[in-house]
Amino acid sequence: MKKPLLICLAAALSLSPVPAEDLEQQLRRAAEKLKNEITKVREQAGVKEQGGTKGREWSGKAGETPDMGREEYLKKSGEALSRWQADIAVLKEQGGRDYFKTRVKALEEHHAWAVKEREMLDGITDEAQFRARQKSFGKTLWTLEAAVEQAQEEAGL
Description:
6 helices; 2 domains
């Protein structure tokens, strides 16, 4: 629905003789208004944003910032993995529907993958290769955290 609205808006604004800078500003304002309207409609419908910002912040701080030292990064990521493993264990104890049990099993597999990826990071000696793999691993951590948070929310924790 956004694309047709933006296309119509751009077409309507492009028909008037306006300098390119003014047109760009008008388009930005129109896009901002559209974004605000969509947010209002989502709030009225009770639709929540998926995923928390906490995971994104961690990924931004640890997964994509090369200025964090290797040892510190590995320590923090290890602590995060341990914390999420404990959270997954608590979710597993909750039991519940088969669907939820399947979700917890998927979380366990996701965690196992993240641990394997971290072990691979431990073995890399080249700094450039480490930083390249660090970005991917940071995204794995973010998706794991987001999935754990979503399961916790569903379980009422």
